[in-house]
Fold these 2 entries.
Entry 1:
Amino acid sequence: MKVKTGYIREYSVISAALGLLILLNLILGSVIIPPRDIFASLAGLSDLSFVNEILWDFRIPKAITALLAGVALSVCGLQMQTLFKNPLADPFILGISSGAGLGVALFVMGFSAFGISLSGSFALNLGVAASAWVGAFGVTLLILLVSSRLRDNTSLLIFGIMLGSVASALITLLQYFSSSSSLKAFVVWTMGSFSGLTSAQIWIMSMLIVPGLILSVYNIKELNILLQGEAYAKSLGVNLEHTRRRILVATTLLAGSVTAFCGPIGFIGIAVPHIARMFFRNADHKVLIPATALLGAAIMVFTDTVAQLPGQSGVIPINTVSALIGVPIILIIILKSKFI
Amino acid sequence: MERVLETKNLCLGYNKVIYKEITTFADRGEIVAVVGPNGIGKSTLLKSISGIQSFRSGEILIDGKEISSYSHNRLAEKVSFVPSQSPRARNLSLFDMVSSGCYNRTNWLGQVGSNEMEFIYHTLERVGLTDFAGRDSSRLSDGEFQRATIARALVQESKIIFLDEPTAFLDIENKLTITRLLKEIAHEEARCVIFSTHDLQLAIKHCDRIWIMGRDSFSHGNPQDLIEKGAFDTMFKDSPLKFDRNLYTFV
């Protein structure tokens, strides 16, 4: 029996679907822009100034953000699932989103406690992103500090979950003592959003995500060994501590950055790696990493498109849509497979 | 005979002592069985001498050098380890599973060189899994999967192979197949195979040397000498079980 190595057909099908979904994402919204006008504007031939404005100032940045977020969260979720040999692991299992949330809560509610109002939306956005990133990175740093003292990956998982619970408890405490307006700002952040990012912010986000993705590709070799158990990995000469650290840093760069700029976006990070495994029926991360990246991008852009569907009457929060799309997928996987 | 493994006053355990005073050795080209009652520390012994787990005191010499003087990669060239129950990774092809043994010789993406391919297929043939290369390794039978884990260790090309209860959970036919395979590997490829087992009859019949982890003391030697010295009786001391010298088992 021959071993299958190439998946060019599968990758091209997903890429084509991704292209169509991006086009659909650009078409739909409060105003429907016909594909003809989109192509004209993309080619720089459109003289419809409102089309150019909507497209270049709003929809294209939003589509790029969704695409980056989808890639980052899915690739990150895949690594967490392999590291912990746990099908329910997601990018935030180690408390990264709780850490980010704590950062944002301290920023949003802390300022209001000192009587400073945050009216400038740009300063608010950047401050939220920075504090979220510091929170996420703080959690990772704490885990890295103790990781060499932890016996195995299960202890690491328990430590991360506990850390997340402490952060969540602190958030609740802050919420209890904060004003209703700052509470609302925090809750809006937790709903997740891809819109309103300036091109500078998108640049910063990609500068963090791209190194995270490069590091993830560099993790492939060890991820494949980890599939076969820690004892075996150790006997092969894999340095488990280094590997753990590299995966953690990649995770923070990917999930931490997305959370900082878009809020904690759930379900995609769990669901996409499973979809990739179902599609490709191969456990090799050389196949799965590009597969989750492409599928993650496509599903996230689709999620964002669905969120825009109410058109004139507003936007559904991303987390609502991702849960509505992600949960059935997870259920199908559980029902269809005897073991994950 | 090349002495590939030696322990001196080895004391197992981390915080508390599990087993003490193990002074023994194994040579190249030998198949060695480690026997003893449940919970005595057979797994701990194998994990300690293969460098997976730390030990309390004493010396472990691999190829004449202290085990702690080896780096992760260098040790993996000398020693490979087959855990008692390896997790099965779904959708991992048998070929990918076995080729992972080349870890130290692959490129940064973990791709196997074309010169290794032939060696991997040859190893699959050796353990009788030639036709299974493209199969999902998680769907192999217990006996086939155990042979796959042995192939994985062979691909690592280490002088010493440790196996933690490789024949547990297998039927009698598979037990025999695996034990014979291990013996062939030791004798024909001049490697040293050390495995733990509860199957005394097979161990006595097929192994060159047996390490007995008795309740109070450790003894080692070739099976016939051990039988004559009555060493097997130390295994279940203070119990009504007695070793039968003709049946090679406890009655």
Entry 2:
Amino acid sequence: MKSTGAQQVMGNRTGMQTTPELAEELVEGAASATPSSEGGAEVIAEQRVEYISEGFPLGSMPSMPVSEEAEADEDQAAMAVLLDKLSERLAFERMGVRLYEALLNKCETLGESTPGPTLDDVKRIGTEELEHFLMLNQTITDLGGDPTVESPSADIAGVASMGIMQVLTDPRSSVPQCLQALLTAELTDNAGWELLIELTSSLGYDDMRVQFETALVHEEEHLQNVRDWLSDCVLDRAQLDEA
Amino acid sequence: MSLDIFKEKGTPLDKQVFTWRDLVRTPTSKLDDDAFTRVRIILMNGIESNAIRTSHGMARMLNGNFRLPLAKVRRVEQHQQTMVNWLLPADLSPLETTIGFEQVAIEVTASVAQHEPDAYLAQVYRFGLLEDFDHLYRFSALMDRVGGADANTIIQNYSDIMPGRPTQVEHRAPEDDLREHYDCTTADPLTKIHAATITAGENQTHDYYMTIGPMFADPIARQLYAEIASIEEQHVTQYESLMDPNETPLEKWLLHEATDVYNYYSCMQYETNPRVKQIWERFCDYELGHLHLVMDLMKEVEKRDPAELLPQTLPTLIEYESHRQFVREVLNSEVNLRAAGTRFINAEDEPEQAPLSIAYREQMNSEGSPSEIVAAGYVWTPGTELVESKSVFAKGVGA
């Protein structure tokens, strides 16, 4: 059976100017209504206060076996903070590998284009993300931690970055749109490595700090690459690129 | 341990009240709560969801005299479901919740299968169990390969992550999904409670997958949810067919309320989170109130003694613990079972004895099997497969 429905209107329909007459009626209707309760958005905040005040945390770190060298409470506390942040980076780098796998998949399917990353560019970054993941896995193990733990910071990082994965794995997203999402990831990743370097430096883990500084050099390069590709793509689309 | 359901009257219906603030409490912790707390929350959400579903079904088919009591009890059950389901935290992603749903299907069904008095029904539960067991493996692969995360952070070592009866061969024609029902005049009350419990859990799983499937961007994730939601629909068909259609609607209502009491009481015995335990205790009392209301209706309307249908005390409870050894034994001995009509047969006999299922399966899988694609070569490992450098980027590592 074939339908004889209305002809589809092409293009974005989210703005009010799509149907100006309906828009006018909508504005008129809303303006004539009276709210059923007084106040503004601050009333929502008052509700949140109640729940925040209960003081339940998202979660905690597992209790660690106490080593001979780290018997003092403050040492244990410092170790818990370090492991929490290492777990966060570990989770982020693991996700990073999957993000770049998705990007590689997309670039291979659509074919390399200029401007934008080459397949070798994507492979290089993906490889470095995998190396960082493996290095963090080993680092946590060497510290006596459990690399399979999802720490509170790792959990938060996962929640915060769910949208990035959604963009990368959406078959409809373009390479520039993926780069836009990756920019969020790389900015966060850079700041994460900087914080880890600061933390290990303060705690006197010099060997670890040196390893992390090497990782940061890679991540700075990833960030710069993503920024450049994104900017080139956007300018190219706007036909403003000097090339 | 035993609860005399005739002596304990619970909370009267008119004392079962809520506020929105009461319904929406600070949720449990994804990281710190025991996996079985999540398992209980997910199951009890399913139990309440099914109570509401069944009540609506009855309201649409029964005469007007039942509609008000059904509506009154249903309103409370709506709010019970809300309070229970809202215990799940926002940092538990839809895929992580899915892992929780499959863990429910494995561990709760394993407990039920071991205590089911009817040998045929026990076989049905073991049959379904191996299919949900496989789903856990497929979703774990999805979580690792698309989400970059480890499903064991949710499972907490209690359940195995490995293939069961492959999802791709679980697709059956409706003719091979129906089972023999128990005889309501002779069946053990526990048999009836088991059937209502597992049907409720599976129905909610189906509804959940149908809701969240389109929220995923990745096409293989969308396909996998489409495929496994279809199996969950088959499972609902299978499990609901275990219930005797000759039970009167009131009898079914009575059994559902007894099932609710039984399940809240089971949860109470195992709960480790005191905030959650307090909810199980409160709702066990609410369900006793519902049960006695229906007992009174049964005496009044059908002139039957509910004691003919219900046990004096609650039978063996659901065991909220790992059933790893049992599941492995079932896997070893029954993974090659298939269904032909209401019987279970060996896989090699399927072409001859269940040709409709073969044809249906070939049609559905003719453009590829999502569950096979997502888990191609997948072996779960702690921290998971990137720990072993299983990635397209592995060649470059250390170069």
